[in-house]
Specification:
The relative contact order is 0.16. The chain has one helix at residues 6-11; strands spanning 3-4, 37-51, 54-67, 85-90, 97-103. By secondary structure, it is mostly beta strands. The strands form two sheets. A three-stranded antiparallel sheet has the order 1-2-3. Strands 4-5 form a two-stranded antiparallel sheet.
């Protein structure tokens, strides 16, 4: 089960990213100068499996960003995972693969 990080990070002295006046302009250039990004939610999940065959481990952190003012976002693209598939996350500038994985059973 994912660990919710928002309150933990705030308690550790990191409240600003979760406030409406957070400044993420170095990561995103909004079309409206009055529009601001802030972190709405943050989660972390880790997995480790140790068997006679070896050890497998993975970890992921997800951050959900929200916008202050400005135009409504475009509707999200719908993706239906109804069969096994491979996925990868790569750097858009270098093309380097950062993470690769597979989903064997996508059922909820």
């Amino acid at each position: 089960e994912p660990l919710e990080l928002k309150e933990t990070l705030r308690a550790m002295g990191m409240p600003l990213p979760f406030q409406a006046d957070a400044d993420f302009s170095g990561m995103s250039a909004p079309s409206d100068p009055d529009e601001r990004l802030s972190i709405d939610e943050a989660y972390h999940m880790a997995f480790i499996e140790v068997t006679e065959a070896g050890t497998e481990a993975a970890a992921a952190t997800a951050v959900v960003m929200g916008r202050g003012a400005g135009p409504a976002a475009a509707p999200p693209t719908r993706f239906t995972a109804d069969h096994p598939f491979l996925f990868l996350i790569r750097d858009t500038q270098t093309g380097s693969i950062l993470f690769m994985g597979r989903v064997n059973d996508p059922r909820p």
